[in-house]
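ERR on first pass: missing label on line 2. Operator R.T. fixed the label and resubmitted. Corrected input:
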Amino acid sequence: MFETILNVISALAIPLIIVLIPLYGYRKGLKVYEVFTVGAKEGFDVALRIIPYLVAIFAAISIFRTSGAMQVLSWIMSPLTSLIGMPGDVLPLAFMRPLSGSGALGILSELVKTHGPDSTIGRMASIMMGSTETTFYVLAVYFGSVSVTNSRHAVPAALTADLAGIISSVVLTNIIFG
Amino acid sequence: MINVIWLAMILIGVTIASADCLVDFVDGSILWNPTLEPLVNLTSGVFDSVKFAVTLAIGLVGIMSLWLGLMKIAEKSGLINIVAKAVKPVMIRLFPEVPPDHPAMGSIVMAIAASVLGLGNSATPLGLKAMQELQTLNKVKDTASNAMCMLMAMSTSSVTLIPATIIGIRAAANSSNASEIIAPVILATGISTTVAIVMTKILEKLPRYRYPETGGETSLAENQQNPSQENA
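pass 2 clean. output:
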């Protein structure tokens, strides 16, 4: 029931917003079409502005990924993570998640296929995937779009939050499905 | 910090790929016939991914323009202000530096709402719109303001109501209950959002992350602060 309601909301959200905003503007006497195009004109500039930041981040992530550094890191960390109840198989996902959304999705699909979606590993990986974000992509895009280079405490704060999401998903999986 | 992480990722990656040319990682033995394959793969991987970075950015143009167009209507019609007023009590605590009736507040709410609803494609343009609004309030243009860091931390940790893609993957793998992860995900993201907010509020007060105020009495302190911040 809850799930159906959520699905309906997410399906309706965009069409509703696309209708309501122009309708409201029109009632307030705006030339909605013209105002829309004025705003839309900025879209191209924003996309262009983030390219250097995306290239920088993606290059570093690609080197880190293809080199196998992720596996080496997972191997070093595995004694530590087993203490909180995280199986070694899930560890690469935890490292990949903040770096690459498609990479993490690849690992998740593989884990779900190998261990089954209803296994502890399959569930933990699914919950972890849903509870964290591609932090470095968001960082590059958000700060790149306004040409901010000194991100101050944004990275440590966001990474700590990711870590909290990862630990929570491990603990919750073990409590709920353990 | 991003400078250190960026360099470390490249350095570690190239080092490990080089080692991989000489050593068999599976049994730790030294290869008698060193291979160049790991380094070749590394190079082609970099070229592919920078190409993808540009494709991704260009692919954003359409949806970006759509949302910026809609947001312009929402802004000119006063709709954004209404949204901003409605959530004022919470927002002034999270973003104390932003004037309560500033359009940035409305944009931030829209951005966070989009990521909560799992509208991934639309969350990015709305987040960027909010960033631009915050940049108009920012005194030092190349440095993130407290509000920007809060928005960034909240966006990357936001509560997720419907992890649609993941449910899809699980259903495709014949899960007996593909959506059983919804409740744990809501819980876990609730925790991570709380951590994000608390951490941002704590870290923004630390000297090493201090915001470089322009002019005034703080200029002396700022000059002493700068060298260490360059390295941060």
